Request: fold
Amino acid sequence: MRVSNWGNYPKIDAKVFDFSEIEEIRNLVLNSSELIPRGLGRCFGDSALNTTIASTLRYRRILEFDEKSGFIKCEAGVSVKELLDIFIPRGWFLPVTPGTKFVTVGGAIASDVHGKNHHIKGSISNHIISMDVLLYDGSIATCSKDENSDLFWATCGGMGLTGIILNASFKLLPIETSYICQETLKAKNIDELMGIFEDSAKWTYSFAWVDCMAKGKELGRSVLARGEHATREELCGTKYSADPLRLHSGKSLSVPFNLPNITLNRFVSKIFNFFCYRIVPDNPTKSIVSYERFFYPLDTIHNFNKIYGPRGVTQYQLVLPKVNSREGIRKILTKIAQSKEIPFLVSLKLFGKQDSFISFPEEGYTLAVELPITPSLFAFFNDLDNIVLEYGGRLYLTKDVRMSSEMFKKSYRNSEKFIRFKHQIDKLNKFQSLQSKRIKI
Reply:
């Protein structure tokens, strides 16, 4: 069948096998020369693509749950959406969530996903208690921070290259309501924005939308939102108090087909960014919003990726060490604003400290730029790569579709250590993706 991930690039022919029992996936692994596990395919590029794909979507049972502690153990194919739908009404939320709920637990671990609270809570690996991984020879290894710790850390952020994540255990976060107390602030430029981020360090959640078309004194003008889980007391007297733990899926829009490539261009992007900035009041505003609106605004538009047309879309997401972030991100924003490319959705978040094998986050600022794929885009990314390397940063493997092996090995300081361990734990090199071949893991 024809398969692609969220970016709709590349598209390949692949055999996709699903499973609901361990023996099924064990037989597939033992009888395949190479394969890669895949969940809901929300990575942008080719990290979950191979000619043989093991789909986890039928392997999705919740195995244990403790109502008092929030401890949960579930199979890898359970999605964030399923967890939210089941546990929000019972007063629980995820300790870390990415910007979409359409991702599986296994995919979240393989990407070591981060959220809007990384500066406080770290990435998902900080919260995983243990997991079972099916290895190349059909054996199953249980790993945690204390048991088989090398396998644990190599699997968190390892892009599915160490084995098939079968299940994981972690603790959910207790909440009183399904709402967020949000404060929204405008920043006139990137310097002002970073100042607001520093002032928001004690807020649990923070992120910013950035106008990547702005130049000069307005370079990096932005809207920052910061938030906390609302308490029942904070909902008193509001229309939300009657059902404080309600789900918020509600109505949604859908993009039924790929729009023509000409639909999205620099003029349209400039107008869109202009109005996104101008529509927000100049003074700080406080509001109570649903978890859906705060964490997953684009999930309400089904097939949002189709607005980019048949050419496909990718994200260029980088992180720069905090000491270099202000100058480096200013330089990157200038380069993007002066280019002929079409930056449409751009966000900035603050990361806290993290040590790992090849997980993406490190202490500093991460900028994510979403652009349609054009004939000149990858050459432009090569120029951005040079800036990222100059300032000691790296790119997010989950969003990548064209990074070179040289870029990967220069920017991920533990890359060689990871490669050695990957081939030690996967002696036949069965777990491969198009991405792993490209960057020579």
